[in-house]
Design goal:
Number of helices: 6
Structural class: alpha/beta
Distance between the termini: 8 Å
Strand content: 5-15%
CATH topology: Oxidized Rhodanese, domain 1
Shape: globular
CATH architecture: 3-Layer(aba) Sandwich
Order of helices and strands: EHHEHEHEEEHEHEE
Number of domains: 1
Length: about 180
């Protein structure tokens, strides 16, 4: 089942088309080149300001726009299998655990699995986790491995914790109303 917040995105689901990377995510109308160039400039600026070891940092809505607009762009979800199944996932994302559950043991095969799933490309490769921490490390490793346009998705899938310690209420992929599926 595909979900989206009721912010207009739900009404547009399925109305326009599919992304170039065959995720099943809808393609909304946009001024693609201006959007892409502006997004990449902001992401690069964030990387410079924060001395990030990869190409840039994206907000969830920016990552979604790149997925829809840039041929061969890829989203790599580095959360655990339990998170993909119980919390949800981005349709069409490449799913490779950074750490395993239970135990949070680092996946020693992450890089070979990544190379197998995502061919060397100059297209953006975006990394997503719950809140942006694991994906930061995955983007850095992929950059070191020779992928020149790696980006971390800030806020992650579930976003930051609110005052009560709960996620999925302040920011993140789901709160932004972007498509996701569960189960």
């Amino acid at each position: 089942m595909l979900f989206a917040h009721n912010n207009g995105a739900a009404a547009a689901l399925g109305a326009i088309g599919r992304t170039p990377y065959n995720s099943g995510l809808p393609v909304y109308e946009m001024n693609t080149m201006d959007d892409v160039e502006a997004i990449l400039a902001r992401a690069t600026q964030r990387a410079l300001e924060n001395k990030l070891p990869y190409a840039g940092a994206l907000l969830p809505s920016e990552a979604f726009t790149l997925l829809r607009a840039v041929p061969h762009a890829a989203m790599v979800d580095v959360r655990t299998q339990a998170e993909w199944y119980w919390v949800g996932r981005v349709p069409g994302a490449v799913m490779i655990e950074w750490t395993s559950y239970p135990g949070s043991v680092r996946n020693p095969d992450f890089l070979p699995q990544f190379r197998s799933a995502v061919p060397a490309t100059a297209a953006p490769v975006m990394f997503l986790c719950r809140s942006g921490h694991r994906s930061h490390h995955a983007a850095a490793l992929a950059t070191q491995a020779g992928y020149p346009r790696c980006f971390n998705v800030l806020e992650g899938f579930e976003g930051d914790r609110d005052a009560q310690g709960h996620r999925n209420s302040i920011n993140g992929w789901r709160v932004a109303g972007l498509p996701w599926e569960q189960g």
